[in-house]
Each structure stands twice: as C-alpha cells, then as structure tokens.
C-alpha cells in the first residue's frame, strides 16, 4: 500500500501540512490500496499565496511563451497516458477503454488552447475605444473525481492561455490521479507558483480557497448544493464564478427512429462512465405507442453490457467509486420500485456472480412519470428512466420539465432531430448518439450552472474587459 502525502505548491512537491488521513479503497475489490494525507486550510493558503506571487510575472508573459507552455503540458500528459489510465481504473472503476479516452482528452485540451491562442484577440477597437482583455487574477479550480484529467485540463488550458495563475482543488477520491497530473505539470517545466495542486475535503480546503481574499476567479464542477453554497459565500467579495453542476439529461427518441438502434444508443448515453457522468442521458422519452417495443429493444440491447473487472478488455461497466455512492444508487432504485416504476432490466443488489466491489445492476425503469424522484434527481449511477410522450410538443414539455439543463440527446431522422434540438433548454444537445466537440461551449441552463467552458469560451471565462476611451 502506498502513502500519498504531497501537495504541489510553488513549483515543488512538499509534505502536506494537513494530518487527516483517508483510506484509499479499490472499488473493484473493496481492498485498501493506500492512504491519502489530505491538505488543510494552511496548505490552501500557501497555494493561493504562491499563485498570487506568480501572477504579476505570468500575466505579462508573451503569447508565444504561453503557447509553448501549453504544448509542453500536452506532451507531458501524453507521455504519461498509460499511468494516468491505470490510475483512473484503480480509483473509480472506469472501464479501460473509457479511461484511456478520458486520459487522452487532457493533452488535446492543452493543444487546442495553444492553437486558439495563436490569433486570440486580446485587444480590439470598438467604436472609438480600445477594448483590452486582461487576465482576471488568481483562479481556483475545483474539480470532481469522475473525470479528473479532462476537468483539470479544460479549466487550466483556458486559464493559462488567458494569463491567470491557478490553484487546483482536486477531489480526495482521486489522490493518485492528482499526484500523477502534478508530476506532468512538473515535467512540463511549469513556472513556480503558476499552477498549484492540493487534494482535500471541500468543507476544509475548498472553503479556505473560495473564501480567500486574493482569489478573483472560482471555477467549480460538482454538486448543486456545493455550487450554490460557493455562490452565496462569494457574494461579499464578488469574484468571477463559473459553476458546472448537475444534470438530468433527456434522450428524446423521435417516432421515426429505428428502435433497436435507439435502445443501444440510449443505454450507451445513460451508462457511460458507469453512469457517473453529469451529462448522462438518464431520461429516455419515447412515443407512448412505441413504449412496449422500445422496452423489448432495451432488453435485447442490454445483452451487450458486460459488468465486471474494469481492467478486463471486454468489460463495459465497472463499479461505482465508493460504498457511499453504491448505497446512494441502491436507495434510488428502491425509491423507484416503491413509487411504482417497473424494472425492464436490473433492480436492487449486485449483478449476478459479483459478491464484492461496488457494482450496481444496470437498471432501466419503465412506467415512470415526470414527478417521480428517480425522474427528477441526479442519481449518478447506471439507472435509466423511460417516460412516454404523446407528441412532439409533449416530448419538449417533458424534456424541459426539470430544474437542470446541462445536456440533452435527440435520436431520429437527422433534420427533424436537429429541429427538435432547438426546443430543448440545455447547454449542449447531441444528435443520434454521444458526441463531443472541444471547441463548443459547455455549461448549463437553470440549475445546471453559470458560465461556459471549452474552446475560446474557456479563455474568455478567465478574462476581464477594460475599455480605454478618448485620444
């Protein structure tokens, strides 16, 4: 068993000042794998001080210097892709192919920011004035455990391109992944203090960072409750705040869709990353007269789901991240049954043949109504609700009948699906399957958040505009 007790501050690894220990558990076997010594408020303060001291110099670096740094980061992450993938599998059970894809996103995010920076307009004429975009200052990036490398890199790429210095507060459930990513920063020759990484609890390290008077930008990805708390507590200082929060994405199956194909896609959309994704399409909306046929197609498509050891090549679904999440999802499944939803596949307990590990039976419910708890709350596990609609107007009403609005999916004839996508209130709508565009904005409507990330939007998110008027 290994002991992770390092933070990355001011360009070097140092022992965390915090003394609280967290036992690290392999979610596949439930066996202990090591200890994480978590950072504390003192570590958080040192990290902000380091970023503040580095800001004056880094904010004045040239476009070329920042482009070169972004490419160096991309190279360093690409060189450690194998280790990053293994750590992802070990810490939250992502199937190997999905983990490999997610690790690969990080290098791409840095390279894209470098390309966009080549001709990014930091200064432009507007009317008779000169408008200058300048870096906002020290940024705090709080990232979740379920997509660590992508979350860190997409926020960090925009911040570095803009000229901000950063403190990353990484989840305590991704200690090894955080350590490896910090090693990538070090290998890339990150200037001291420009990026600092501390791992620890949100109610300790997160609160110390978001409440620090020298922090001018907060970018948080995580739960609605924590996001709202950050927004309330930041009101006195008014730092710039970006929140990427929860989702309850609809997958709208139009009546011209091939139901067998739609069932395969709906399961892939709902169960990606073991269902632990804010963009998961966890509400499948199906024309009422097609419900029985769609559920039959779901049963057939479910035969391709292979639940088991995520290190095995054929596995498509691994365990959930920890016992707390396992019990949370089991509770939602029981809630669905109690409310009258009928399981097409799955149900309570572990899949057959798996008596250890935080494995959940992939579950699809039908006879679901929009007022049921399982149809309204983010479950964050492999649970899909099938809801019937009468016509397209009704489908649009159900799709938007949610406090969230992060992502949505439409399956059907392409032009018709694209037309329907315009009726959904969500930050992204994917047509006929899972799609990702790193240049497109990402963020949510309503309670799914504030602001946008990715591409030029992630750079703009770390800039303040200043107008210089007159001769």
From TrEMBL:
PROSITE patterns: ALDEHYDE_DEHYDR_CYS, ALDEHYDE_DEHYDR_GLU. This is aldehyde dehydrogenase (NAD(+)). Its EC number is 1.2.1.3. Signal peptide: none annotated. Belongs to the aldehyde dehydrogenase family. GO terms for molecular function: aldehyde dehydrogenase (NAD+) activity. It comes from the Bacteria. It catalyses: an aldehyde + NAD(+) + H2O = a carboxylate + NADH + 2 H(+). InterPro entries: Ald_DH/histidinol_DH, Ald_DH_C, Ald_DH_CS_CYS, Ald_DH_CS_GLU, Ald_DH_N, Aldehyde_DH_dom. The active site is at residue 244. The keyword Oxidoreductase applies. Keywords: Oxidation, Oxidoreductase. CDD domains: ALDH_CddD_SSP0762. Pfam families: Aldedh. Residues 16-468 form the Aldehyde dehydrogenase domain.
């Amino acid at each position: 068993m290994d002991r992770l007790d390092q933070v990355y501050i001011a360009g070097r690894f140092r022992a965390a000042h915090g003394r609280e220990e967290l036992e690290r558990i392999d979610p596949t076997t439930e066996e202990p794998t090591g200890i994480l010594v978590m950072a504390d408020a003192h570590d958080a303060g040192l990290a902000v001080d380091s970023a503040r001291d580095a800001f004056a110099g880094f904010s004045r670096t040239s476009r070329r210097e920042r482009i070169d740094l972004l490419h160096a980061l991309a190279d360093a992450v690409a060189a450690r892709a194998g280790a990053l993938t293994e750590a992802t599998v070990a810490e939250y059970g992502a199937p190997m192919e999905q983990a490999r894809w997610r690790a690969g996103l990080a290098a791409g995010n840095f390279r894209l920011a470098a390309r966009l920076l080549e001709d990014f307009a930091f200064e432009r004429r507007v009317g008779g004035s000169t408008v200058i975009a300048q870096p906002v200052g020290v940024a705090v990036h709080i990232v979740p455990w379920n997509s660590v490398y992508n979350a860190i890199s997409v926020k960090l790429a925009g911040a570095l391109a803009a000229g901000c210095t950063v403190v990353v507060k990484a989840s305590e459930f991704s200690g090894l992944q955080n350590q490896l990513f910090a090693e990538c920063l070090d290998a890339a020759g990150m200037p001291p203090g420009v990026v600092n990484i501390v791992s620890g609890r949100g109610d300790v390290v997160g609160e110390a960072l978001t409440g620090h008077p020298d922090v001018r930008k907060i970018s948080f990805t995580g739960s609605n409750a924590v996001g709202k708390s950050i927004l309330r507590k930041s009101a006195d200082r008014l730092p710039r705040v970006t929140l990427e929060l929860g989702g309850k994405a609809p997958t709208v199956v139009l009546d011209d869709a091939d139901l067998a194909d739609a069932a395969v896609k709906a399961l892939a959309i709902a169960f990606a990353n073991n269902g632990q994704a804010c963009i998961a399409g966890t509400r499948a909306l199906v024309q009422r007269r097609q419900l029985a046929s769609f559920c039959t197609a779901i049963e057939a498509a479910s035969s391709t789901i292979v639940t088991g050891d995520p290190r095995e090549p054929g596995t498509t679904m691994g365990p959930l991240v920890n016992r707390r999440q396992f019990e949370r999802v089991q509770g939602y499944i029981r809630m669905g049954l109690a409310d009258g939803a009928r399981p097409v596949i799955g149900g309570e307990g572990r899949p057959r043949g798996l008596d250890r590990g935080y494995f959940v039976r992939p579950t699809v419910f039908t006879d679901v109504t929009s007022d049921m708890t399982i149809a309204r709350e983010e479950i964050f596990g492999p649970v899909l609700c099938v809801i019937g609609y009468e016509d397209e107007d009704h489908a649009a009403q159900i799709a938007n009948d949610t406090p969230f609005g992060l992502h949505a999916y439409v399956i059907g004839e392409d032009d018709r699906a694209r037309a329907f996508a315009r009726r959904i209130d969500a930050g992204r709508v994917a047509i006929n399957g899972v799609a990702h565009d790193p240049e497109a904005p990402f963020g949510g409507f309503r309670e799914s958040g504030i602001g946008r990330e990715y591409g030029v939007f992630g750079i703009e998110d770390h800039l303040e505009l200043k107008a210089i008027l007159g001769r």
